[in-house]
Amino acid sequence: MSYNVQYMASKNYVFFYDIDVNDPAAVDAVAKADKTLASQPSKEHVLWTLDQVAKVIIDEDPDIVLLQEMNGADDSRTYYIDLLDELRSRLPADDYACHTQAPYWQAEFIFHPQILGPVDMRLVTLSRYRITTALRHQLPRPERHSLVRPFHFQRALLEARIAAVDGSSLAVINTHFEAWAAGTGIMEQQVASTEAVLLSLDSASIPWVLGGDLNLLPPDDNRQRRRIHAARTGRYDENPQIQALYQRYRAVPDLQELLSDNAEAWYTFFPNDPTVNGPDRTIDYLFFSKQWSLDDAQVLQQGTLSISDHLPVIGVYSLADEVDSP
User: Fold this and answer.
1) Which CATH architecture has domain 2-319?
2) Residue 76 carries which DSSP code?
3) How far apart are the C-alpha atoms of 289 and 235, rounded to whole Å?
């Protein structure tokens, strides 16, 4: 399961970055929808969201969970709560004894008027199987002035190696690509950097699964893009950079599903913008290497629409006979 949990902020708000706060019509739409334009969630809603995410994990019972936007104990926006510790306390004690994490937004103080405090956002991987090693791969960063660069996101891949019974290993990679990056060229760089890691694993014959929030629309002949741009609820480049991964690897969602009449079942993002009344795009994915057989897949929409602005993406895999399972 891959799940961007929106730092356990719940779906009860429209945050200052969800709409153009300088657009009176956009702000008026928030009031008309009886929503709150906020800079951070209440502590009550953070704890409620933790309960709901834990319930999803327990109900779905995945062996490996890739979580994005998990705040650590040094993040003022979520009341200095260590979200990983709180989540694990809500899960069965022995289910996910193995875990690893990597920061991708850390600063002692953010001077943005809607934050004015420290941030500590991480990728977190939970596993039922033994994690032997973990490695953080730095992704390319947008060009920014040296004075503000330390305060911005440092996107990354979190690679965890999982032990197999024959002494070999498989790799599980968790990531969250750049946001609001259309027209900057950074998405091409982050895709290329990710592809280099995957090709290295391929050359070593190591089975892998890559999951996360890639913030890229699928190569579906711009169907989703045209609708989103017409509604003015997002901005994406015309040529989907993720196509490079789809050309080389298989994925959940499968491209045929995204080109079908049932594409809506594979939408993974439900914007907090009050003018959007349901999931309207696919930006979360699971890619996997050739050693895997895909037995089942889904985007879990039922029961999750009120938890986060993202929905869980689930893949059920088995390895070929010549590769031992964990």
Assistant:
1) 4-Layer Sandwich (3.60)
2) G
3) 30
